[in-house]
Write a structure and sequence with these properties.
By secondary structure, the protein is of the alpha+beta class. The chain has helices at about 45-65, 85-90, 105, 125-130, 175-200, 220-225, 230; strands at about 5-10, 20-30, 35-45, 70-75, 80-85, 110, 135-145, 150-160, 165-175, 205, 215. The chain folds into 3 domains: about 5-45, Complement Module, domain 1 (Ribbon); about 50-175, PAS domain (Beta-Lactamase), CATH 3.30.450; about 180-230, no CATH class. The relative contact order is 0.08.
């Protein structure tokens, strides 16, 4: 009966060196009905070397992604996560040893625009990227399941194959929570200082090293009779 089988193994040359080979054996019969076994061997050395090189490059890339300071999420065309790096899992309060099993849009909790309005799922940068759109530096506040939150800048882009078909998407989340907290404290202090100087019963004004007026509070404007635009920047 005719048939064929293949076997991959390490072969040895006459000089004692070895190489990976793919042996194919096909059973056949001749016109007289005698069984014949036709074999062919393919040297896999170059292919194995190329596979090893690709595997090493893949390992290096994954190591770089896992050690990146920014959170990185990669998903396929069906929004199934392919890679969620350690920084992304820390932001999402997910064990970095876990497999990426949940969809990114459920991993992060609820997302809000800076003005406090909820971001619809269809407007989420990864969803936009899967539809072929690129997002650069979109700001959002993501509230975790435990109620804590982080502020992020999100950049996302589609991943295309050689035929320019979208086969997935990648998103990078830069955590700006501390920066936002500092900005909010500075804004609070500025407003507090403004409130104190605006309600002061004494004239308060500030000049720079050149003697130019940089601040003139309401009481100073009342006492000296100058409007702000008349005195600010003047010496």
């Amino acid at each position: 009966r005719e048939g064929e089988c293949t076997l991959e193994f390490t072969a040895r040359r006459k000089d004692g060196s070895t190489f990976e080979t793919l042996l194919s054996v096909r059973k056949s019969t001749n016109d007289e009905g005698d069984e014949l076994y036709i074999a062919s061997a393919l040297d896999l050395t170059e292919r194995k070397q190329a596979e090893a090189k690709l595997a090493a490059q893949k390992d290096l890339l994954e190591t770089i992604l896992q050690q990146a300071a920014d959170a990185i999420v990669v998903c396929d065309a069906q929004d199934n996560p392919i890679l969620i790096n350690a920084a992304a899992r820390r932001l999402a309060l997910t064990d970095s040893r876990d497999r990426a099993e949940s969809s990114p849009k459920y991993l992060w909790g609820k997302a809000y625009y800076p003005d406090g309005h909820a971001i619809p799922l269809q407007a989420w940068p990864l969803q936009q990227a899967l539809r072929g759109n690129t997002t650069v530096g979109a700001e959002a506040r993501v509230v975790r399941a435990d109620g804590s939150y982080h502020d992020v800048l999100i950049s996302a882009a589609p991943i295309h194959n050689a035929q320019q078909k979208t086969i997935g998407a990648v998103a990078i989340f830069s955590d700006i929570t501390e920066r936002k907290q500092v900005e909010e404290r500075l804004l609070y202090q500025l407003r507090l200082t403004q409130g104190i100087t605006d309600s002061a019963t004494e004239s308060i004004f500030v000049t720079n090293a050149k003697g130019e007026v940089t601040f003139f509070n309401p009481e100073a404007r009342r006492v000296f009779g100058f409007a702000s635009e008349e005195i600010i920047g003047k010496s």
